[in-house]
């Protein structure tokens, strides 16, 4: 089976398993786990922030971030299709008493400065006030669009001009960096905090990082504890995470595979494929006369897994357990299925 459902399905390699086995550990709630401390320092250095916090999942990282930046009752501006709105169980409302105001992004999920200005709400007797803007890069629902540094900067500067901090959901920020040919720190520089996943294209079995100023991370650490994310000998899972960080330069391989997969699938009658910017390939199968669910059932029977991303849209994701041969095989398996 060629599993293209997500870049989260990768399994840790022998080096990662050995790193877990040999990790020096301590109680991380007491800040005594040297492996976690090292990972947090290295992560902060790579994204160019003062500090970083190791968190179990990207979802928890985002939820800690929004809570840390805001006060209960405030509004959070989010792009309409963003993960933090669509796929986190309404956590901002459930966990932090926040109200989401969605902002329309463009077809790549870019939020313009104008949209931020018109959606901003000043606090007064009747209105809660805007407490935060979240952005996403790469943008998952928009097919892994890698949003340019200049666009992030323009929008973040507009928010800052209104005294609104900015959190970046950078679950795949290293995919964005690889696609744009910049360092992740350049993408992160205009924003106040960033979350990124070690457990996606970077290949770690578990874990994400939340990075920002020292003051932000100190308060985020308390919120991590509150949400149940204070872990003990976490070096066991942080050790492979540290190796994963060094995998960021191999993401271009996934992007090349995504391009080849997209080109191959686009040549199949009835399929229309968006040119991928990173490792996410969105395939529109309406031209086959079948729904996404029917299409997925058929390709599963010939050995390929994907996920439905709409009634007629399927997402395939390349990752480090998928090689050139798998891409060729996936294309011919889809062809056979149809
Ligand atoms: C996967 C993902 C998350 C959440 O990460 P989990 O570790 O699955 O909780 C957040 N944002 C985006 C854009 C993602 O793709």
UniProtKB/TrEMBL annotation:
A cellular component term, taken from the record's GO annotations: cytosol
InterPro entries with a match to the protein in the record: ArAA_b-elim_lyase/Thr_aldolase, Low_specificity_L-TA-like, PyrdxlP-dep_Trfase, PyrdxlP-dep_Trfase_major, PyrdxlP-dep_Trfase_small
Protein species of origin: Halalkalicoccus jeotgali (strain DSM 18796 / CECT 7217 / JCM 14584 / KCTC 4019 / B3)
Highest classification ranks of the organism: Archaea, Methanobacteriati, Methanobacteriota, Stenosarchaea group, Halobacteria
Modification N6-(pyridoxal phosphate)lysine occurs at: 200
Family matches, as Gene3D superfamilies: Aspartate Aminotransferase, domain 1 (3.90.1150.10), Type I PLP-dependent aspartate aminotransferase-like (Major domain) (3.40.640.10)
Descriptive protein name: Threonine aldolase
Family per similarity comment: Belongs to the threonine aldolase family.
Keyword Lyase: yes
Keyword check for Lyase: yes
């Amino acid at each position: 089976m060629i599993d293209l459902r997500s870049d989260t399905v990768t399994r840790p390699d022998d080096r990662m398993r050995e790193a877990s086995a040999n990790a020096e550990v301590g109680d991380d709630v007491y800040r005594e786990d040297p492996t976690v401390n090292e990972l947090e320092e290295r992560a902060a250095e790579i994204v160019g922030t003062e500090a970083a916090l190791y968190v179990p999942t990207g979802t928890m990282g985002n939820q800690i971030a929004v809570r840390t930046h805001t006060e209960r009752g405030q509004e959070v501006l989010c792009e309409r299709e963003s993960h933090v709105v669509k796929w986190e169980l309404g956590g901002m409302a459930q966990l932090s008493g926040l109200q989401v105001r969605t902002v329309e992004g463009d077809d790549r999920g870019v939020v313009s400065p104008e949209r931020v200005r018109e959606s901003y709400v000043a606090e007064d007797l009747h209105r809660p006030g805007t407490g935060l803007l979240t952005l996403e890069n790469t943008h998952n629902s928009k097919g892994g669009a890698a949003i340019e540094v200049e666009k992030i900067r323009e929008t973040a500067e507009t928010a800052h001009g209104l005294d609104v901090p900015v959190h970046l959901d950078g679950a795949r920020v290293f995919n964005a960096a690889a696609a744009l040919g910049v360092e992740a720190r350049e993408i992160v520089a205009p924003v106040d905090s960033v979350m990124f996943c070690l457990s996606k294209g970077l290949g770690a079995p578990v874990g994400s990082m939340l990075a920002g100023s020292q003051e932000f991370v100190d308060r985020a650490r308390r919120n991590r504890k509150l949400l149940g994310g204070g872990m003990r000998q976490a070096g066991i899972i942080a050790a492979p995470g540290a190796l994963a960080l060094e995998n960021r330069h191999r993401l271009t391989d996934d992007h090349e595979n995504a391009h080849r997969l997209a080109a191959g699938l686009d040549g199949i009658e009835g399929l229309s494929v968006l040119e991928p910017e990173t490792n996410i390939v969105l395939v529109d199968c309406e031209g086959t006369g079948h729904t996404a669910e029917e299409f997925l059932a058929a390709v599963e029977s010939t050995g390929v897994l994907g996920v439905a991303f709409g009634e007629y849209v399927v997402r395939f994701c390349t990752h480090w357990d998928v090689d050139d041969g798998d891409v060729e095989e996936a294309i011919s398996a889809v062809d056979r299925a149809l």
